[in-house]
Amino acid sequence: SDLRQIVVTKSVENIQFLPFLTTDANNLSWLGYGCLKGDGTLITVNAIGAALQTLYILVYLYYSPAKRPVLLQVLLLLAVVVTGYSYFTILVDTGTRLTHLGLFCSIFTITMYLSPLADLAKVIRSKSTRCLSFPLTVTTFVASSSWTLYGLQLRDPYITV
User: Which parts of the chain span the membrane according to its record (predicted)?
Assistant: First the structure.
């Protein structure tokens, strides 16, 4: 719905960029975890998610009047991803790589779910929920519940978190 609103109004007004960015980082992290673990579900879902989030970022950038801050945040994300990839492939031994990456992914997921709280201050100040997306909130709840159940089924504490 946020992407549709951006395209229809040709404006990114009242739409936060941080959730798009953190969700993309989250998908890329879990994609790496899925590849390392050999989990087809994690690979498929997060490859599609990363592709869609990258599309959202490109659309946001296209319609954003202030491109520099958006580009700087994207570059910061790329730096974090490259640094993380380097850390996990060069510095972490193969035996503990999955554990370290799982912990990293869990922390990033928590960050992703906390990012919409940046809007909470606006909601409280304005006494309006106009900047919050109800469909996104519901979808996030359903998706996180699904991943928790999947993690419990696999007995994988990182996916469960």
Answer: 43-63, 70-88, 100-120, 132-152
Diameter of the chain measured on Cα atoms: 51
The pair of three-digit structure tokens given for residue 85, joined into one six-digit string: 């990839």
DSSP for residue 93: -
The Cα 110–Cα 36 span in angstroms is: 21
User: For the segment 84-117, what is each residue's pLDDT rounded down to a tens digit?
Assistant: 888 888 888 878 899 999 998 998 888 777 766 7
pLDDT greater than 80 at residue 76: yes
* Confidence grade of residue 145 (pLDDT, cut at 50, 70, 90): very high
Nearest to 28 by CA among 83, 86, 81: 81
Distance between CA 143 and CA 161 in Å, rounded? 12
- pTM for the full predicted model: 0.81
Q: What whole-number distance in Å separates Cα of residue 132 and Cα of residue 128?
A: 9
Alpha helical stretches, state H, 87-133:
94-114, 118-126
CA distances to 79, 99, 101, 106, 140 from 145, rounded to whole Å, are 30, 22, 21, 14, 8
CA-closest candidate to residue 14, choices 118, 143, 142, 108: 118
